[in-house]
Design goal:
Length: 112
């Protein structure tokens, strides 16, 4: 019985040390927003390819999160709105106008 209690306690501690799916989703959305803004602000093609690759990776991870936790899908729009202000600060530059739809964040769209 003691072994079972220790195992249960270990699982609880491990779970509390890892981000929840919602937290991970918010973090990945924030990363995409920052990278989209950096692409908008970039003047050359060099950083663009790396930023686009990073965005594609984040989008794939978000798709996996939403597949495993479909109840989070309705929160995506709110998360984008919430994370947008922080992303504007992190991206630097004059990006106060930057705004993105859910399709732009989750789809295969990139700034012109």
């Amino acid at each position: 019985m003691k072994a079972n209690v220790r195992k249960h306690s270990l699982v609880e501690n491990t779970m509390s040390d890892t981000p929840t799916a919602g937290t991970e989703l918010a973090s990945r959305i924030a990363t995409i927003l920052v990278h989209l803004m950096k692409i908008e602000a970039a003047t050359g093609d060099e950083p663009r390819a790396g930023l686009e690759d990073a965005i594609r990776t984040q989008r794939a991870e978000i798709a996996s999160i939403l597949q495993n936790a479909p109840s989070l899908r309705p929160t995506v729009g709110t998360l984008i709105s919430t994370e947008l202000g922080l992303a504007r600060t992190r991206a630097r530059g004059d990006l106060s106008h930057a705004s993105y739809t859910m399709d732009q964040v989750l789809g295969d769209w990139f700034p012109g």
